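Sanity check record (used in CI):
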Amino acid sequence: MNRKPTQSKETGNQIDWMITLVPLLIIVALCILFFCFPQRSNEVVSQIRFFLGDTFGTYYLAIGLGVFLFSIYIAFSKYGDIVLGGQEEKPKYSFFTWGSMMFTAGLAADILFYSFSEWILYATDPHIEELGSIQDWASVYPVFHWSLIPWGFYLVLAVAFGFMLHVRKRDRQKYSEACRPILGKYTDGILGRLIDLLAVFALLAGTATTFSLATPLMADVINELFHASIDSTLLTIVILIVTCIVYTYSLLHGFKGISILAKSCVYLFFALLAFVLLFGGEARYIIETGFSSLGRMVQNFFELATYTDPQRTTSFPQNWTIFYWAYWMVWCVAAPFFIGNISRGRTVRQTILGGYVFGVGSTVISFIILGNYSMGRQLSGAADFISIYQNDGDLYGAIIAIIRTLPCAPLVLVLLLVTMIAFYATSFDSIALIGSCYSYHRLGENEMPHRLVQLMWCILLILLPIALVFSDSSMSNLQSVSIIAAFPIALVIVLISASFIKDAGKFLKEK
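Expected output for BCCT family transporter:
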């Protein structure tokens, strides 16, 4: 029988001031630098990104493929039968509620931004010309970059954290604690503290990347709806603050608030997809191209996952695949903890395979419908979204142009705006919850962080995105934030995976 979560009492020795204050001070310092020296800050970030992505690209790719293969291994091995909780315990949430919370916590509103537009970025890349035609390849890479390997990162760590929390009953909800089976006493020393500081910094970097990337689209949607010309930067900041209020309100109502918001978000999301598929006039093309792109992705999966472009003829993997694997790595700090938390009562196998079915399935459907709708219009000659993007590099404007071609375009814009806010709110209330747990030395399984700590994290998550918006960072520079933060986190992910195998093997012998 699960006890009702209780509010943690604030005591001085409960709060981990180092993990709470050091990231706060780093973020404040970065915000000041981005505000005061926007151009120079972007230049430095870009130089570091180039060094890591260009020199150590194979490092990111190898870990991505390795983690995916590892997820398949543990799902179908003896470890797959382990229940994340008591051996007779049943799942706390229905599959739909569980899947909704997992899906919305893992992707945020970026999925809508990229579903509409990612094929445009690839269609204008010389690598696609090397491979063949836009029809054959521009819709393959979005499916590849957002499906198996990304969710592999999430699900491997989710079962490791779920095992740590629900089976081993550990009361330190931190990255370092998941490494204890290998690190032993060093978990409580400098090495463990360093791992936790890296994890919190990566969490904030991932938050900044995703918030800064898609919120300008929401600003453009509002200007389009009201035929206004409000300053995009100002409007984006207002949207960030409103979204912060929504996810703060949801978080302070606990898991019940998060689950209600997650289900509402999924309903809105699939309503948008259904409308585009049924009324956009491209249903046959969407289905056939989607089916073909799935087949081509599966057929060429290992080639796509290991392509490094050693002669740098286009630098495609450095610009995209490596960025995406880094992007998922920094998101791995929060999303897997949350997924592991809500997966209590499910087996390791159910968590991994269910996550692939709901998470990958929903993601792929989004890219197939929204991406192939606009690509169908482009290739049929009914519109020219590529030229719109090439003329001024405004991807947000290209997405607005895509939506204008749909019937009842204002209705679609409203639905898109509300869905994006719901996605952001659902993602960031879960991230703020995990960040709040990080602020404690120890937190029992049925304890919740104090509301003031949760409120602090809700505000902290919004600061760096606002600074990046003010600094007018390009997409490349926003990608750089993730690539830099992911470099050390990748090693920690490998360490956690190895620790899980060691601890789970020991657990099976104890049974």
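The chain has a mean pLDDT of 86. If this sentence no longer matches the regenerated tokens, the check is flagged for review.
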